Amino acid sequence: MPTIVFASPKGGAGKSTSAVILAAELARKGAAVTVIDADPNRPVSAWARRPGKPAALEVVSDVTEETVIDAIENAAARVPFVIVDLEGTASMTVAYAISRADLVIIPTQGSQLDAAEAAKAIRLIRQQERAFARRIPHAVLFTRTSAAIRPRTLQHIRAEFEAHGVPSLETQMHEREAYRAVFSFGGTVDSLTEAQVGGLDGAIRNARAFAAEVVGLLRQTQTAAAAA
Ligand SMILES: Nc1ncnc2c1ncn2[C@@H]1O[C@H](COP(=O)(O)OP(=O)(O)OP(=O)(O)O)[C@@H](O)[C@H]1O
Ligand SMILES: [Mg+2]
């Protein structure tokens, strides 16, 4: 059903990390989830080959510019959540995936330079909205932020996006070692142990809050679409 696309031309913005954390949390709650690994570097596929991938989470790997729309359509017909991870450049694959999204999440770190890259993703989404004559709901996700401090820069960037009609998620993906560890050890924040990495409770709470907000947002956009 709903397709959630992670997009940003900025390399290292946190697309793959946030996509896997979201997918793992949805799967833990019992939903079947398909992650389409549309990045030629295949970071999600590499994660999935390690032990501990939830049974409800499937990764589709060999996706190219030619097959990405088919992959999204096939998965959307089968499972309640489709998540697409994209490479950190502008490409036809990125444009095609955005054109099929029910929600585009634009991860960005909280600096002005990063926000300028996020703005490029937003321009592409708006182009696709015009090309396909439909609304494509989207929101900025702040990543790698500090759980301890709330910098004013970030509040300012959030307000600027808001002023341009771009909402940002209330939940941030804080900088947490556990999110890196998932890619080293495999599995999810729930299958890691304190012996492998500290701060699991905070990482788990953060993942839960992120997934709950995304599901809420999808509900809202679907209700709005049905009413239109
Ligand atoms: N919330 C987080 N906490 C800690 N580390 C993070 C977090 N998000 C991302 N990282 C780290 O930042 C780096 C880049 O993250 P990631 O690979 O998810 O970004 P990306 O947008 O998918 O990059 P690319 O454009 O290259 O695909 C990785 O080393 C990852 O471990
Ligand atoms: Mg990536």
TrEMBL record:
Pfam families: VirC1. It comes from the Bacteria. Signal peptide: none annotated. Gene3D superfamilies: P-loop containing nucleotide triphosphate hydrolases. This is Chromosome partitioning protein ParA. It comes from Paracraurococcus ruber.
